[in-house]
Amino acid sequence: MVESDGILPNNTQTHKKIKYLILGCGSIGYNVLEELKEDDENVLVVDVNEKRVEDLRDHRHQAIVGDITDPGLLAKIPEPEVVFILAADKDANLAAVQNIKSAYPQTHVIARAMDLFSADQLVDHGADVVLYPQQVVAKSAVNHMNNLVASRNAQRLFSLLSSWTGTLGIITHKNPDPDAISSAMALAAIASNASGGKLATRILYEGNIGHQENRAFVNLLEIKMERLTPEILGECNYLALVDCVAPGMNNDLPLDTPINIVIDHHSTEGVTRLRKPEFLDSRPNVGATASIMTQYLQELYLPIDKKVATALFYGIRADTKEFQRNLSPQDLHNAAYLLPLSDRSLLEVIMAPSVSQETLDVLGHAIVNREVKHGYLFSNVGYVRNRDAIPQAADMLLNLEGVTTAMVYGITDNSITLSARNKDIRLHVGDVMKEAFSPIPGASAGGHATMAALSIPLNAFSLVKNKDELLNMIIDPVLSNFMKLVGISEAEGDES
Ligand SMILES: [Mn+2]
């Protein structure tokens, strides 16, 4: 052991707080010191080699000579936040971990292992992080390789698309889902970018867009998709498959259909390809094809359109069952990348397609403004852009406790609309409506026992400027008429 006291600078004992302590400063320790150079004044190095310590001091680093296995060493050093134990001696590192953990249990310890066995020992003795340099280098090499391959794929796809003119048919799997549809949109965006518009794209599918949520997805994002026919197939100069791996796999294409591009995340097991596509990227370890497409867009530095971003985010979310199934870190990373680029309110609407945003608003008004008399609910929802929201609100309000008949009314652009829903078997709501509202000029009313509707065109009342006033003026007398007909008087309300 080297006697270190003689070389210690006088001020070491009173050294201000340090943040980082490096024990053992060979080449790895020196590289860590370099990485920390922004914080240089907060780093203290301890090494057994006097010459090395002198060199470090010459370069204005704080360094002292000391034996890292010596339990007394720490008495001379203020408590650090983090200790790097990086000597090339596994027993010395193990002893240093023990010394640190008993002197300063709160300090974070990052220790270097010399082999996998000593790595386990270091962990057992309390090291928070153990680095085995050979393994770190190996992991990093493989990581770099994966990134290289991925970005080379993106480049290859881009240059292939940029060399084409004519029409590219992008075929989703049968009964396309949001993953397939959004991937097709992204491929169309890359194609138009790569070709400078010289390559037209058509998104094609064979089956049905079945699920209500999927239809909402296509409608709300205004995605143009066409039914695949032999004629359209004949009009395409190139064909791409997204979210399915080969002709005849989850699509009805003849096995010998020449496919130029395949991008997919399904297993290739059992796939017999009659022709090899020019571009094939199939990654079974990724949660969604949309995730692969997002990576291309990032690697190619292409601007991502709001609709495409929204679609891809939704595609990843749907294929990973709301990020719970087959999820890889790459999927999460891509979803996080897309979220700020996507349309949040649109996402919310797609996720709850049975109830539109306006219907929710209308329903909110209907609940606040409701008046209930003997099981009859009346609600004025005011001005409404989408007239379908009124019957939907009436449907929902009929589910309220104690309500047997619900009547919701409001003004749509050029008429007063009223919807009635009824579950009282003694009442034929269509007949009563007809009777109650027929005195109004231009009104058309009618319906069945359980549901009825009324529409009063407003042009007959065009002299009245204030539409809300108009609504009350017209509807109030007919509502009292209605109440009279069903046998309740206006005076007695039981709830409001
Ligand atoms: Mn998929």
Description:
The chain is α/β, with parallel strands linked by helices. The chain has 3 domains: 20-131, NAD(P)-binding Rossmann-like Domain (Rossmann fold, 3-Layer(aba) Sandwich), CATH 3.40.50.720; 148-350, inorganic pyrophosphatase (n-terminal core) (Alpha-Beta Complex); 357-486, Diaminopimelate Epimerase, Chain A, domain 1 (Roll), CATH 3.10.310.30. The chain has 16 helices and 18 strands. It has a 6-stranded parallel β-sheet, sandwiched between helices. The chain has a 6-stranded parallel β-sheet with strand order 9-8-7-10-11-12. Helix 7 (212-220) packs antiparallel against helix 12 (344-351) and helix 9 packs antiparallel against helix 10 (306-319). Residues 1-14 and 491-496 have low confidence and may be disordered.
As for the number of domains, it is 3
Report mean pLDDT, rounded to a whole number.
86
Tell me the total number of β-strands: 18
Gap between N and C termini, in Å? 90 Å
| Overall radius of gyration | 36 Å
Number of DSSP helical runs: 16
Query: Sheet with the most strands?
Result: 6 strands, parallel
Inertia-based shape: elongated
Structural class: alpha/beta
**CATH domain class name of the largest domain:** Alpha Beta
Pfam family, one: DHHA1
InterPro entries: DDH_dom (IPR001667), DHH_sf (IPR038763), DHHA1_dom (IPR003156), NAD(P)-bd_dom_sf (IPR036291), Oligoribo/pAp-PDE_c-di-AMP_PDE (IPR051319), RCK_N (IPR003148)
Domain RCK N-terminal: 17-131
Protein name: DHH family phosphoesterase
